[in-house]
């Protein structure tokens, strides 16, 4: 990894960018993953690279939805595996929610590379690897239709950070509840998901863990979800984006 001086005004953003580049060289991140990251970076710039109230509201609702779910699952792609593997594994273990590798650019080498990255942080069982458990979701057209019988196939709640719209729409048609993390509040994924956390994934897992551990009854979780409105969260994000440079 190249050395970025701490006093560089964009040090954090540059370090994150280089994690993605290194991940591509290690074959964890697909080439197109660099482009997806660039789109995310642009939106992060527009929200001031910080977690806003609209994201906190969505994180609380996500924690509640996970709490009430019968079988929740975390879908893992290459970008997420290099950006925040440690924090994701920690959340997965604390919340008792399994991770499943699910890729658009699916190959055995990439699945192995992602698994090796996650293995550094002592995860539990990682789904989406053993072919004997593979099933197809007909509503999805890409290779992402290949899912694990014990995971996404049977899940009621699917966490799909940094997701393509086609797959989100396919999973919704398959009657899944969807939680996403997407910096672009206008993407098809953001609009289609039940809960959209408009924030950078590098900031989300520790907050999600804190909110999940703060819930201690189904009643409390239901109250949070009853008062949650995803459309107003997306509108609040757009308001922040459009007023960010307004100094009047
Ligand atoms: P859609 O298919 O939903 O309309 P898209 O085609 O614009 O979206 P994709 O490349 O399919 O974009 O999906 C990647 C999404 O992930 C983008 O909306 C991008 O803004 C977002 N994204 C990229 N990096 C991050 C990140 N680090 N944290 C949160 N979101 C991110
Ligand atoms: Mg897309």
Written overview of the protein:
With 248 residues, this protein is α/β, with parallel strands linked by helices. The protein has one domain (53-242): 3-Layer(aba) Sandwich (Rossmann fold), CATH 3.40.50. It is 51% helix and 11% strand. It is built from 11 helices and 8 strands. The protein has helices at 11-25, 31-46, 53-68, 78-83, 85-95, 108-119, 165-173, 188-192, 201-214, 218-226, 230-243, and strands at residues 72-76, 98-101, 126-127, 134-136, 146-148, 157-159, 177-181, 195-197. The strands form 2 sheets. A 6-stranded parallel sheet has the order 3-2-1-6-7-8, with helices on both faces. Strand 6 (157-159), helix 7 and strand 7 (177-181) form a beta-alpha-beta unit. Helix 3 (53-68) runs antiparallel to helix 11. The radius of gyration is 17 Å and the shape is globular. The termini are far apart. Bound molecules: adenosine-5'-triphosphate and magnesium ion. Magnesium ion binds at residues 164-165.
């Amino acid at each position: 990894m190249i050395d970025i001086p701490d006093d560089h005004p964009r040090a954090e953003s540059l370090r994150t960018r280089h994690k993605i580049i290194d991940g591509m060289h290690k074959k964890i991140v697909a080439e197109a993953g660099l482009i997806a990251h660039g789109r995310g970076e642009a939106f992060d710039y527009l929200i001031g690279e910080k977690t806003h109230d609209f994201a906190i509201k969505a994180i609380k609702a996500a924690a509640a939805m996970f709490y009430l779910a019968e079988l929740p699952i975390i879908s893992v792609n290459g970008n997420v595996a290099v950006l925040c593997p440690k924090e994701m594994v920690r959340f997965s273990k604390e919340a008792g929610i399994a991770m499943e590798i699910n890729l658009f650019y699916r190959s055995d080498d990439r699945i192995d590379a992602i698994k090796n990255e996650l293995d550094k942080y002592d995860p539990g069982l990682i789904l989406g690897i053993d072919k004997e458990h593979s099933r197809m979701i007909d509503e999805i057209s890409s290779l992402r239709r290949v899912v694990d019988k014990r995971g996404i196939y049977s899940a009621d709640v699917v966490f799909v950070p940094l997701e393509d719209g086609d797959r989100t729409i396919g999973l919704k048609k398959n009657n899944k509840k969807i939680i996403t993390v997407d910096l672009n509040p206008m993407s098809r994924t953001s609009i289609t998901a039940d809960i959209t956390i408009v924030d950078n994934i590098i900031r989300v897992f520790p907050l999600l863990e804190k909110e999940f551990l703060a819930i201690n009854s189904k009643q409390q979780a239901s109250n949070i979800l009853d008062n949650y409105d995803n459309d107003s969260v997306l509108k609040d994000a757009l308001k922040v984006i459009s007023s960010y440079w307004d100094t009047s």
